[in-house]
Amino acid sequence: IGGRCDGLYNRWMSLVDACSEQSRALEEARDLLTFRQLVDRVLSWAHERELMVTASDMGRDLEHCKLLIDRLDGTQADSSVDEQTLEQINRLGEKLIGQGRTSREEVQQQQQNLNQTWNSLQGKLAAYRRQLSAALEVHGFNRDVDDTNERIHEKIAAMRSDDYGRDFATVDALLRKQTALERDMSAIHQKLIAHDKDAQNILAKKPPLKNTILDSLKKLEESWKELSQAAELRNECLDKS
């Protein structure tokens, strides 16, 4: 009876050991599956970010640039992956490596590649953020210049009116209106000086899209020249009236 009991006990202990081993194997399989899924998710996220960085899109205008910034870090950004996700992967990877099973080398390689990809991408993202911030300032400047240019063309349209008065009273009224327009021109000219100073300050930072600043200033200069000529011609016509 004692021998049979010993045999049963040994078989029982073997079964317990087998169950424990099976449990550890299942836990490792679960952890390995989770590890691989997380790695795939982070790499997919990193690939999308890499495409954004590689495209180096600075935006077509102010609104588009703001949208790009929002997609990168704002409300439209993919927040499914962050530093905590990477920490979770590294903890899981260290656990799997520590178990020393057949998946050890695979996990080590994937973990190393993932961390290298992550660190490299963070540097690229930081540089892209700085570029977008600089581009936003450029777009803001160009928007202000466009507003001033629109004001100039409103004055040009007023200067090109073919109404030169029918009698002394109407001519006198038009002359007063012309004087008011020329006061507006003085205010606009001060705005042009301010734009030029702003442009020099921004260009000193060597921003992206700097050619658009030069184009905006050139367009503004041409519009101002057109306005000055229109004002001179209208003054001559009103004097003749």
Automatic annotation (TrEMBL):
Keywords: Repeat. The keyword Acyltransferase does not apply. The keyword Repeat applies. Pfam families: Spectrin. It comes from the Eukaryota. This is Spectrin repeat-containing domain protein. It comes from Oesophagostomum dentatum (Nodular worm).
